[in-house]
Design a protein that fits this description.
The protein has three domains: about 5-175, Thiamin diphosphate (ThDP)-binding fold, Pyr/PP domains (Rossmann fold), CATH 3.40.50.970; about 190-355, 3-Layer(aba) Sandwich (Rossmann fold), CATH 3.40.50.1220; about 370-560, Thiamin diphosphate (ThDP)-binding fold, Pyr/PP domains (Rossmann fold). It has helices at about 5-15, 30-40, 50-65, 80-95, 120-125, 145-155, 190-205, 220-230, 265-270, 325-335, 345-355, 370-380, 395-400, 425-435, 445-450, 455-460, 475-485, 500-510, 520-530, 550-560; strands spanning about 5, 20-25, 45-50, 70-75, 95-105, 135, 160-165, 175, 210, 235-240, 255, 275-280, 300-305, 320-325, 385-390, 415, 440-445, 465-470, 510-515, 535-540. The longest helix has 16 residues, at about 80-95. The protein is α/β, with parallel strands linked by helices. It contains 20 helices and 20 strands.
Amino acid sequence: MSKQAAGHLLVECLVEQGVTHAFGVPGESYLGVLDGFYAYRDKIQFIITRQEGGAAFMAEAAGKLTGRPGICFVTRGPGATNASIGVHAAFQDSTPMILFVGDVGSDFRDREAFQEMDYNTFFGPNTKGMAKRVERIDDPERIPEYMARAFATAMNGRPGPVVLVLPEDMLTEMVSARPTTRVEPVQAWSDPGALRQMREMLMQAQKPFVIAGGGGWTPQSAQALQRFAENWKLPVGNAFRFQDTFDNHHPLYAGDVGIGLNPKLAQRIKESDLIIAIGPRLGEMTTGGYTLMEAPRSQQKLIHIHSSAEELNRVFQADLAILSTMNAAARSLEVLSAPVSVVWESWSSQAHTDYLGNQVPQQLPGEIDMAAIIKTINRLLPDDAVLTNGAGNFASWVHRFHQHHGLAKGFKTQLAPTVGSMGYGVPAGIAANILTGRTVFTIAGDGDFLMNGQELATAVQFGAKTIIVLLNNGMYGTIRMHQEKYYPEHVSGSDLKNPDFVALAKAYGYAGTRITKTREFENFFKEALKRSEGTLIEVMLNPEVITTRGTLSAIRELAKK
């Protein structure tokens, strides 16, 4: 049997698993893998990024889009620590991802060699860690075994990240091993007895409410969820930053259950007598800081469906806990026998009416009406466009006013970090365009953009096109908002002196323009959609306009009272 270098075998294993793109920053510690990318260049492309954090976010975005592990390669020490931000995002967002770390040679190990570190300690798998599994491949003949296990671990149960450490000398050894076959995720089906109990609980309910989200959804499972909701006439809210799980245009859609929650929706959830949580962990943001539902035992009856046994009953003690993957759960629920009529039809109808009412914006000061701009984007973007954002108050505009058609229409359209990480939107958008070729719209803040704006160089190098709307208010807006709330008029550490963002975008090879009035936006956005290269539109936002619902002055005055 012919032999090949271990680094080549590793890349061949990626190809066998269906990987078409990997993201990373090159390092001398894994030159053997880089040579493997060259050998298999007609089957897989290595996307060179400008910083490991950007690479890790791109890989995480790929995992969200495809449902299979996004792939990231970095070098040892600083490369791995830079990439840890994306691993943490993948963990909290339940996204399948594999981070490969080139490491010191085996003969230098445990001497604190150049950039050496203990990856098990740093990424250590536990319920509060960053990775589901951390392993080091010392025997190159076992590469196929480690690779198959990494893919299975990343996809099965609650999806998440895996870290594989690659000693430099191991990658150059000659091996005869061959790749294993493609790994598919295992489907865990709902217990029939639990489904019967769930039906009984539904029949006894007066005001049920569904919260859907989390990792593991596909177009097929989203369609099955929609049929379940329609059969039982149930109001559905999407969990924080999983707003494409259920079609926002559907008459049963009640809104997103996250930051800046519609007060009427918050009250509705509190008044509900049965919460059916399908997929989300029910974390801090989806539960309004654990106020919409009280831990450990909520006043509402709770049916919690999740793909990980470790998540069920971990924070909230459910009246009924069902261990199931989303595909299996949704397909079970859609055939759950429903009565001809239910007592909560008007409850469900009013939930959607409240959602539509929340689409009407408040009057806010300044020449820029962000609600109108988002409505324009809504109208002009194709239905399959991908929306990305990082973290900051700027994201609330798309969360509140953009309407996703959702996975049920066949496409994942939202890439956003439930981990709340700044700097995610720009690299995620670039990865989305490279992988799918679809239209990508990214909303960013001035502070958020500069955390990974350097990846515009990656976009230009690899022919990616994204449209970035950058809101410039000269501050870290979320921090200022909290500062004014708790320390009114004591401004400290939140002001920003910004560069010329338009000139910066042009320097990278993007088109750039700046607007100061709402009426200027539509034509610029239409031109951006037609343009072959990416575009950055800088929106000069009045610093007073701090959220979709209010101003800094209002927050300051309320704090004084």
